[in-house]
Amino acid sequence: MDWLYVLMPIAGVKIFWPGLVILGVGVGVIGGFFGMGGAWMVTPGLNILGFPMAFAIGTDIAHMAGKSLISTMRHGRFGNVDYKLGMIMLVGTVVGFEIGAQMIMWLERIGIVGPVVRWMYLGLLAAIAWMVFADIAKKRRKEKEALAAGKEVDKLATGIEWHKSLHKIKIPPMMHFHAAGITCTAWLPIFVSFLTGWLAGILGIGGGLIRMPALIYLVGCPTHVAVGTDLFEVMISGLYGAASYTWKGRTELVAAIIMLVGAAVGAQVGSVATKYIKGYGIRIAFGLAVVGCFISVLLKLIPTYIPSFYRTADISATILILGLVAAMSIYITVKMVQGAAAEVARKKARS
What we know:
Layout: E1 5-8, E2 13-16, H1 17-34, H2 39-49, H3 53-77, H4 83-109, H5 113-148, H6 162-166, E3 174-177, E4 182-185, H7 187-203, H8 208-219, H9 223-247, H10 253-273, H11 280-305, H12 310-350
Antiparallel strand pairs: 1-2, 3-4
Helix pairs in contact: 1-2, 1-3, 1-10, 1-12, 2-3, 2-11, 2-12, 3-9, 3-10, 4-7, 4-9, 5-11, 7-8, 8-9, 10-12, 11-12
């Protein structure tokens, strides 16, 4: 079965190449749908497939930059991108990313980069999953209370509404973002982008894992605009990050190209799917994906403390991460096809 493995010349490791194809196509679909580069799945996925953590981070960022460019162009056609908001957020993203990347180089030098990054992933994934499902539960509770009181259910109501408190901060300059339909201090998106940029540099993510929910819950963007705007930001930070990690010699271009070919196709599917699945449909799917990724990273950590479980945990983590990517991709693709078919049927009925 040696033909299923290919040598990565820069990293110096042999990798199961079908796994790279699955990650590329699947994360292309998922990234285009959720509004992120998908690095929250790809970085641990590459590490599970055999890449050292620093190479997993650098390789993923290089693949992510090209894929996000394709997705952003697609979302722009649907009016889902607030370019003004995205440009404002670049300030914090670039500064935060370089600080995070320098921290990774330091952790690699002292030999603890793998465990530290995995534990940070677990903490972040747990926090994001809690926030998403707490929001969904609160939204449903509001709907039940409205029905019980005989009131009309507000379709635009949300569960967690932290952005309403943050919008009360009136530190100049105040800015209006037309596509997102919000007005807030410019310092709010700058702070959010700095935090996500820092996490991007450390965890090898385009920042989308936290930026997309942050745009919804902290900045107050509608879900579909948060998706498109986040992808625009992922594209910019990804291009900068790819250059930074390539300069540091931590990017495996062969793997990045293999994944990018599949991702270019998948990104088109994911972007179009947001036309038919909006709002809380996106949030629920996102939360389930985060939970699955959390379990896969946890499995990868077990052998660090219980070496005898290495093979079982490694195989289980590989199956879970690839299965999760495949399952989510199929779900999104099916929903897109169903939505497109229903749209065609409606047009025929009207004509």
